[in-house]
């Protein structure tokens, strides 16, 4: 009983800047004229724990939490935390994953093993998925802290919002002295995702 | 009109501003904290952190007795602390409007229980509004203050985590004008709650509820959304959103006020349907009241009492449909529990308590994470301040050897909240326990809020800083020690000495939280591991530091590695490494 709401998930590890990315996204969606709801959990779960932000938009949104199996797009800031939320996605959903591993405590303690084939597992379920070299692109933009904006740029290609509006929001929400580097980070992310997306498509038709 | 995308908490702050609230007070608690933080945007509101929820409510009451509108906010369990003044405030009623925001936490995202505070409305005989999104959070805050004055009653505004922390679009308005100026006005029969006065007030309270019940049948916040079919739904708050998504065609009676219920309206509504569902989170609060009216409903026979509702859970309860799972992942996937930050000043203390085999009565804060592996040094955690009394009680019943192992651990903000009372009891009744105060100069867990021991106000202005050492001495503690928790040897030695002592002692471990923004802690260069010296003994892993990574594939037994992006150079790991493998710039 799927309604006309589009469902976006942003997942990662507490402290990675997920909150800011989801703020920018929902602000952009509001300005684009959609009804928007967004939800994430604060408090205990922030201290380096697993974090997921839900963003829903459309003509009219009810629940702010995305029902299981109805996610349309997943943007993962970390590989394990991308994989963890795959069950929330529908068949044919779009996955964008930052190519980064952060070991959780049980792995650091030697009590669990970090799976090393996560990109392959994701690709198996979601063939159109994209692996984004977030840190490399952030460094290319000029600041490793802009990984979240790189990833937002990568996500922007999957959302029906005019490019000009994204830039308007970045101008509004990013402090002046960080603006240039963030605009570059956004552009690098956007280009990478669209290039990969095309490659996948060409591969499929070949 | 200006629109904005606001969280429920931001919307409540905005609503208070638009309603002309003069005073707002709170103690931080997830998911309520951001309400007061956002009040600082509005200079017309005097917003402050109180040391606990009872004081916060009493401050709000004072402003209300002076004729001003006030708002008090707390998490669900905070209302337990504020319950004493609350129940009698219900008798006195108000002068200026007073709204108490209770932010409940179904699913226990960040709480020690998931009590349903709608029960407080019935218990304290106060009306309760329940918003279903941010727009209603704003509108109902304004409404609650008007209703408070109209019916001479304090009013609850109840949110849940998914309302407090969800953002949705709201329309902003200008603040009201023309509210009366605050003044002194004597009225002892109304405000002095001696038995002879209170008996009369109780009669008025019952009358007030009856009037509101009838009034509520005609109000737009209790609304019937017409649909089709033979099924009727009664719901409120966030549950409305799930009901609407699962049953897009159903006729829904959406209650904006969950107490007192509009009984006539419900009776008329129920008569129209063969099947009536009550869709509500946690307790069957609405359901039981409707059943008591002699109306048959489906509710908790289908829906869970424990945990929060979701679209999936409501759908499954009503139709038996399970979510359309496309991808399943293995249960064995490594979990990612929250942990203390790299450089957290609490880490070394718990490492030492673990080594000393202490039995730790714990408390509420970031340091509750000391219960987790590998620190595993917390044995009880109940509520704010409980650590102190729990330790006293334990030490009363144990033999001397076991009693010595009992240590109460509490944070600075929690100690000032309700821990100090327990310490007075410790001294007064000659407890033999040891009290550890982890003084990181901030209320850290809820996101770094100021308190009377931090030296700053909510607005960021400098304030008197409670002297914890002097405070402990003044209640009669002779042995008060101040220790830097980064010095692991000293930490262990002092704890051992004080645990052995047969009178009360207090050890204050002082070091600011790594995340304090106003006074940033200087980060030292990241440390490194000398792979040639690391024997793979895993002693450093026992610190549970997120920056120390285990590489099982290196060497014979595996080796430790320090993540250069996470390490802040706190210097704890070199103190536990017997092979001198950890330090500055070993590996290049």
Structure description:
The complex is a heterodimer of chains A (206) and B (588). The relative contact order of chain A is 0.15. Chain A is of the alpha/beta class and 206 residues long. A six-stranded mixed beta sheet of chain A has the order 2-3-1-4-5-6, with helices on both faces. Chain A has eight helices and six strands. In chain A, β4, α2 (79-84) and β5 (89-98) form a beta-alpha-beta unit. In chain A, α1 (18-31) packs parallel to α6 (147-156) and α1 (18-31) packs across α7. Chain B has 20 helices and 22 strands. In chain B, α1 runs parallel beside α6, α10 packs across α13 (311-319) and α14 crosses α19 (488-500). β2 of chain A pairs antiparallel with β8 (166-171) of chain B.
Strands, helices and their partners?
The complex is a heterodimer of chains A (about 210) and B (about 600).
Chain A: E1 6-13, H1 18-31, E2 35-39, E3 50-58, E4 71-76, H2 79-84, E5 89-98, H3 105-108, H4 118-125, E6 130-132, H5 134-141, H6 147-156, H7 163-173, H8 176-205
Parallel strand pairs in A: 1-4, 4-5, 5-6
Antiparallel strand pairs in A: 1-3, 2-3
Helix pairs in contact in A: 1-6, 1-7, 5-6, 5-8, 6-8
Chain B: E1 3-7, H1 8-18, E2 23-26, H2 34-39, E3 46-49, H3 53-65, E4 70-75, H4 76-92, E5 98-104, H5 118-124, E6 128-129, H6 134-150, E7 155-160, H7 161-164, E8 166-171, H8 188-191, H9 195-215, E9 222-225, E10 231-236, H10 237-246, E11 251-255, E12 257-259, H11 263-270, E13 275-279, H12 285-292, H13 311-319, H14 347-355, E14 359-361, H15 386-397, H16 400-403, E15 406-411, H17 412-428, E16 434-439, H18 468-474, E17 479-483, H19 488-500, E18 505-510, E19 527-529, E20 548-551, E21 559-562, H20 572-576, E22 582-584
Helix pairs in contact in B: 1-6, 3-4, 10-13, 14-19, 15-17
């Amino acid at each position: 009983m799927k309604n006309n709401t589009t469902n976006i998930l942003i997942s990662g590890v507490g402290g990675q800047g997920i909150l800011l990315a989801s703020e920018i996204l929902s602000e952009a969606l509001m300005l684009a004229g959609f009804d928007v709801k967004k939800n994430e959990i604060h408090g205990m779960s922030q201290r380096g724990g697993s974090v997921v932000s839900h963003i829903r938009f459309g003509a009219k949104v009810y629940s702010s939490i995305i029902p299981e199996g109805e996610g349309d797009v997943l943007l993962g800031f970390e590989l394990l935390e991308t994989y963890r939320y795959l069950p929330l996605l529908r068949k044919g959903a779009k996955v964008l994953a930052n190519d980064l591993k952060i070991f959780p405590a049980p792995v650091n303690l030697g009590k669990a093993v970090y799976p090393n084939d996560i990109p392959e597992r994701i690709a198996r379920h979601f063939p159109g998925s994209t692996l984004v070299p977030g840190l490399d692109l952030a460094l290319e933009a000029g600041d490793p802290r802009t990984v979240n904006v790189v990833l937002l740029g990568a996500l922007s290609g999957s959302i029906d919002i005019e490019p000009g509006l994204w830039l308007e929001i970045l101008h509004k929400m990013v402090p002046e002295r960080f603006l240039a580097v963030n605009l570059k980070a956004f552009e690098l992310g956007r280009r990478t995702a669209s290039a990969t997306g095309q490659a996948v498509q060409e591969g499929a038709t070949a | 009109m200006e629109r904005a995308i606001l969280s429920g908490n931001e919307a409540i702050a905005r609503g208070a501003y638009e309603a002309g609230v003069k005073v707002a007070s709170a103690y931080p608690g997830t998911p309520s904290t951001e309400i007061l933080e956002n009040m600082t945007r509005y200079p017309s509101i005097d917003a402050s952190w109180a040391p606990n929820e009872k004081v916060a409510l009493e401050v709000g009451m004072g402003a209300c007795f002076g004729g001003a509108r006030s708002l008090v906010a707390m998490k669900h369990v905070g209302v337990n602390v504020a319950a004493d003044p609350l129940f009698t405030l219900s008798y006195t009623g108000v002068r200026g409007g007073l709204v108490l925001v209770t932010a409940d936490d179904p699913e226990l995202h960040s709480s020690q229980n998931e009590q349903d505070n709608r029960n407080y409305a019935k218990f304290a005989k106060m009306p309760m509004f329940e918003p279903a999104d941010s727009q209603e959070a704003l509108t109902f805050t304004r409404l609650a203050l008007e209703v408070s004055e109209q019916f001479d009653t304090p009013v609850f505004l109840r949110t849940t985590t998914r309302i407090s922390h969800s953002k949705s679009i709201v329309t902003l308005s200008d603040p009201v004008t023309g509210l009366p100026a605050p003044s002194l006005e004597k009225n002892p029969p109304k405000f002095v709650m001696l038995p002879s006065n209170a008996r009369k007030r109780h009669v008025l309270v019952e009358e007030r509820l009856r009037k509101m019940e009838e009034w509520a049948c005609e109000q737009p916040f209790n609304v019937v959304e017409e649909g089709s079919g033979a099924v009727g739904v009664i719901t409120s708050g966030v549950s409305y959103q799930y009901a609407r998504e699962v049953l897009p065609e159903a006729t829904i009676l959406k209650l904006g006020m969950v107490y007192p219920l509009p009984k006539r309206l419900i009776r008329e509504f129920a008569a129209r349907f063969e099947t009536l569902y009550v869709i509500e989170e946690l307790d069957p609060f609405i359901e039981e009241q409707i059943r008591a009216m002699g109306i048959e409903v489906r509710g908790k026979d289908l829906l869970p009492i424990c945990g929060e509702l979701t679209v999936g859970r409501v759908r499954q309860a009503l139709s038996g449909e399970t979510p359309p799972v496309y991808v399943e992942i293995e249960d064995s996937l490594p979990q990612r529990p929250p942990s203390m930050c790299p450089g957290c000043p609490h880490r070394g203390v718990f490492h030492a308590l673990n080594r000393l085999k202490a039995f730790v009565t714990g408390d509420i804060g970031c340091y509750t994470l000391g219960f987790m592996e590998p620190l595993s040094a917390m044995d009880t955690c109940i509520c704010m301040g409980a650590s102190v009394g729990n330790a006293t009680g334990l030490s009363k019943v144990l033999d001397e050897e076991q009693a010595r192992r009992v240590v109460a651990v509490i944070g600075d903000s929690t100690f000032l909240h309700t821990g100090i009372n327990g310490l007075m009891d410790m001294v007064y009744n000659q407890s033999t326990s040891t009290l550890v105060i982890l003084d990181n100069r901030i209320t850290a867990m809820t996101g770094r809020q100021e308190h009377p021991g931090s030296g700053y106000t909510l607005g960021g202005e400098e304030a008197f800083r409670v002297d914890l050492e002097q405070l402990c001495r003044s209640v009669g503690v002779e042995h008060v020690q101040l220790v830097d928790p980064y010095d692991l040897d000293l930490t262990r030695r002092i704890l051992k000495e004080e645990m052995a002592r047969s009178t009360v002692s207090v050890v204050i471990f002082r070091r600011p939280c790594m995340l304090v923004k106003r006074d940033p802690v200087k980060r030292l260069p990241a440390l490194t591991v000398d792979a040639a010296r690391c024997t793979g003994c895993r002693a450093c892993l026992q610190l549970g530091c997120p920056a120390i990574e285990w590489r099982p594939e290196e060497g014979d037994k595996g080796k430790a590695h320090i993540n250069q992006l996470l390490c802040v150079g706190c210097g704890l790991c070199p103190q536990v490494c017997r092979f001198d493998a950890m330090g500055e710039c070993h590996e290049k």
